Amino acid sequence: MFEETGTTAEGDLVINVGPQHPSTHGVLHLVITLRGETIINVEPHLGYIHRSIEKMCESLSYRQFIYVTSRMDYLSSHINNHACALCVEKGLQVEIPERAKVIRVLMDELTRMASHQLWWGAMAMDVGALTPFFHAFREREVINEIMEETCGARLTMNYMVPGGVMYDLHPNFQQKVKDFIILFKSKIDEYDEMVTGNVIFQNRMKGVGYISKADAVSYGCTGPTARASNVSCDIRKLFPYEIYDKVNFDEVTATGGDCFARYLVRVQEMRMSLSIIEQLIDNIPEGDFQAKTKAVLKLPKGEFYASVETARGEFGVYIISEGGMTPYRIKFRSPGFSNLSALNHMAKGHKIGDLVAIMGSLDLVIPDIDR
Amino acid sequence: MTDNMISLESITNSIHTWLNQTFNPTLAIAFEFVIAGISVITFFAVLGLILVLMERKVSAYMQIRLGPNRVGPGGTLQTVADTLKLAVKEGLTPNGADKFLFNLAPFVVMIVAMLILAPIPFARGFQIWDINIGVLYVTAVSSVSVIGILMAGWASNNKYSLLGAMRSGAQIVSYELSAGLSIISIVVLTGSLRISDIVASQENGWWLFKGHIPAIIAFVIFIIAVTAETNRAPFDLAEAESELTAGFHTEYSGMKFALFFLAEYVNIFIVCSIGAILFLGGWMPLHIGNWRGFNHIMDYIPSSAWFLAKVFFLIFVIMWFRWTFPRLRIDQLLNLEWKYLLPISMFNVLLITLIAIMGWYF
């Protein structure tokens, strides 16, 4: 260890954070070299929950492999499914019904909000405030109930299928979402009062974990992590899929590049998602929710790629098909992995308490990183 | 005067008189020692139970949860059940730890907490030891507890514990200065270090109101400093569960952990009682200058009720901090003390001395 990093001096402390540690948000192992409380080096070690998902997908049919991706970034499983469905549809060249498109976007945005809510609570918990976590769960529960009614699942949804969505919406869906919009509008102001405006919180976040625009791009950061460094990288805007080019929303960016900027971007994104849902909820077109597809899907020979904007950044699915019933090769581009790679860059020179804040602001979901 | 107050003084006096009549003076004082010792230990345990339950209820209230509500009426026996569980748990000592210091540390912390209970008047005339340097005694003895924490962290053979203990050392030693200066400002106003004198001096109004703005500044600084000294959030860096998992007591289990825990809660009680004694009149009822009728009505409320109400109010405030604020970083914590609180409190002492000399207080 001492030889490996090269920067370590005698008296430096090498401590292991994780694999089981409350602030690694899963089984991440960080080897930290400390001089006093100051971080000299952070080395993430992966592999504790590796399930070789990409290899598994190669033996699953095009309908089946979507289910596996729910288990990766379990906080935005809907959006992961969406990417897979899009990629398969690209290969099959299927046009999906308008109703399915709207339902997919609605579900994506609800998922994004649920994910950001959990992150908001966890972020506050990482810097030592436990109470916001419970408050965030109160609102997340409402979304989970809506999901449960329509999809039958609360976490690992498998609602998106090639050609559309699996079932039609639950009759209560519209009303419940409308109630949620009213509820959450007041709650998000409460979030701001409770955490955003807190002096201690701002002191903990501002100027911590800075990453410049150029560095964010070169590390391959996406999502709120990159957008906080003023990188325009919202897939919904750059390569609009479904009906994102028809709804009115802004790409949320900030210039701070620090933890607080990342915080603000995510909170603003929650408001943005709310506005997208508001625009769509009264205008769900009638019609089919699924296009007619064959029972056994066979993609033509070739390479296909589709990417979507998950709560953490760009999630891409790359399929190489040889024309069979199963993909020849699948590769996922997960946002967490690239974001985590910038951790050492962000954390160097900060205190150990800051490391926890930086990790929180990256919004890590370990199965997404360690596939 | 407060002669018509219902107080516990008669009980202590009658015990004292009876012991002296029945036994010779040496034996009588020995019995008094034993009684005081047993009361302190009992009080220590009961207080721990009550405060842990209170913390759980307060946190549940703030976090929109129910909190413990199954064991006993309204969950009141929950902490008793917790204690039972802790008592039967295995007390582990990690490999490579300094066994002697590791096992000694919780007792050091606990004994310190017990010692400081001595000069605290729980009601009128209900005090173990009315020493003439009471306030000085409290500040002096309380600083010993940091040794216990450093001992625990160092002897654990765990890097998290070591970091936690070092943080705790820096933190407690620094914040003691501000807390001490706030205490001194009231001593300056009263002109005595004896706790009974300080309480008596607030007969016509509490120092918080009598001492004008400097007293309020001293009170605010005192509350901030003692929150830091007792390792409570937002200053709970020593334990910092999201960074150091549990800091200096990571390796402690079962009853050894419980002793740290108990000591922490008793320390909160102690600092809040010091705050209540210095700024809110201790057991003294709310008296306003010469309003005889009003003061007389206030005297009907027992002095112990006054004392406990004030103390538990301050405890609630400190718990409120814990369940609302995020945690500071170690450099921010030390900055706050050395760059802000200490200069302010030093200036405040000058100001309050001026007020005391000129007699500008009520």
From TrEMBL, chain A:
Respond yes or no to whether keyword Translocase is given for this record: yes
Q: Does the keyword Transport apply?
A: yes
Q: Where is the NADH-quinone oxidoreductase subunit D domain?
A: 126-371
Record InterPro entries = NADH_Q_OxRdtase_suD (IPR001135), NDH1_su_D/H (IPR022885), NiFe-Hase_large (IPR029014)
Q: Subcellular localization, per the record?
A: Cell membrane
Membrane disposition: Peripheral membrane protein
Q: Which reaction does it catalyse?
A: a quinone + NADH + 5 H(+)(in) = a quinol + NAD(+) + 4 H(+)(out)
| Transmembrane portions of the chain | none
List cellular component terms (GO).
plasma membrane
| EC number, as in UniProt | 7.1.1.-
Q: Which GO terms describe its molecular function?
A: NAD binding; NADH dehydrogenase (quinone) (non-electrogenic) activity; quinone binding
* Keyword line: Cell membrane, Membrane, NAD, Oxidoreductase, Quinone, Translocase, Transport
Function per UniProt: NDH-1 shuttles electrons from NADH, via FMN and iron-sulfur (Fe-S) centers, to quinones in the respiratory chain. The immediate electron acceptor for the enzyme in this species is believed to be a menaquinone. Couples the redox reaction to proton translocation (for every two electrons transferred, four hydrogen ions are translocated across the cytoplasmic membrane), and thus conserves the redox energy in a proton gradient.
Complex formation: NDH-1 is composed of 14 different subunits. Subunits NuoB, C, D, E, F, and G constitute the peripheral sector of the complex.
Instruction: Please state which protein family the record places this protein in.
Output: Belongs to the complex I 49 kDa subunit family.
Q: What is this protein called?
A: NADH-quinone oxidoreductase subunit D
Q: What is the lineage of its organism?
A: Bacteria, Pseudomonadati, Bacteroidota, Chitinophagia, Chitinophagales
